[in-house]
């Protein structure tokens, strides 16, 4: 019937939306494998002569979280991961096989916190969080659940000097450790695109990289971060993220502001994408008649939201991408942007004029001047990487050192 077809269509569409949902936070239960039991067995040498030969149980497998550069979000296959149990010991001194470890791949920039429950004075429990690790490099790993120890068999050689009273004794394997984890993805890319809705971030991402984001002429086309990889001819590559468009009040969590802003914290470089095609509208229309602020106001508002959320974000290296130069009259918008930024820096302090960000006029829609922007981004990332290496060499082992992308050094992993 028509109603049945409509219900089936709704279910299919819901499934498609859920399949492409970007997951940046998840809670997991992880459990190490149980150790195998020891075995009681005897070799018979005749005439009542027996020799203990029961093998030990195998050790349970561990659970590891491993950072993988090919994994882009926390859409893991399950919420509960358990490593393989160790096999039981056997006769003839056959020890049980150790359980295989379980490896859970997570994106680079994943912060791991262990969740524990502590009884309170009201007969309830309070949640306590403790840092367990910060997976910020390819193949970085942390063991989050240990496997249980294998039980001992009655074999004299493997069990050491055991008295006659233990000849008929074996021990069971112990359970693996259990942990509840909160995983949060903070560092999703080397470069973050920041801008108002419909500023052209998705078009720029598609033009620069291999990503295929949804693109349309209305605001809020991007509702989850899109990740792309920019690959150069010599094999060098970096990742770039299209952060969903910010709105006024994002720092107060309007429009899912906090969930978007935290993705910016651990990027190395920010690209402010500014729509310079809007200024000519303001020359003929009152300000309240346009939905998009003039170019310089866009930049100021974006910086204001970042400052309100975390003042350290203003210290990040940045560039300004003046987009939509394919629209007639963009020159006035570009000039207004340059003039407005210089005035803003003068108000903030004369010393900051030297920190005037580079402005790159581009047309993401037509690809105009995008190659020049890509080269400049690579040069800037290489300079940042060199700066991080020098800082690391000067302060090796300093637990209080923060790199420009927000990575904390000297953290001890389990």
UniProtKB/TrEMBL annotation:
Annotated GO MF terms: GTP binding; GTPase activity; magnesium ion binding
Biased composition (Basic residues): 161-172
Domain (Obg) ranges: 20-188
Signal peptide feature range: none
Region of interest: Disordered: 154-174, 395-414
UniProt keyword terms in alphabetical order: GTP-binding, Nucleotide-binding
InterPro entries in UniProt: G_OBG, GTP-bd, GTP-bd_Obg/CgtA, GTP1_OBG_dom, GTP1_OBG_dom_sf, OBG_GTPase, P-loop_NTPase
Domain OBG-type G: 189-382
Residue ranges of the TM segments: none
One GO biological process term: ribosome biogenesis
Cellular component GO terms held in the UniProt record: mitochondrion
Pfam families linked to this entry: GTP1_OBG, MMR_HSR1
Family to which the UniProt record says this protein belongs: Belongs to the TRAFAC class OBG-HflX-like GTPase superfamily. OBG GTPase family.
Protein name: OBG-type G domain-containing protein
Taxonomic path: Eukaryota, Sar, Stramenopiles, Ochrophyta, Pinguiophyceae
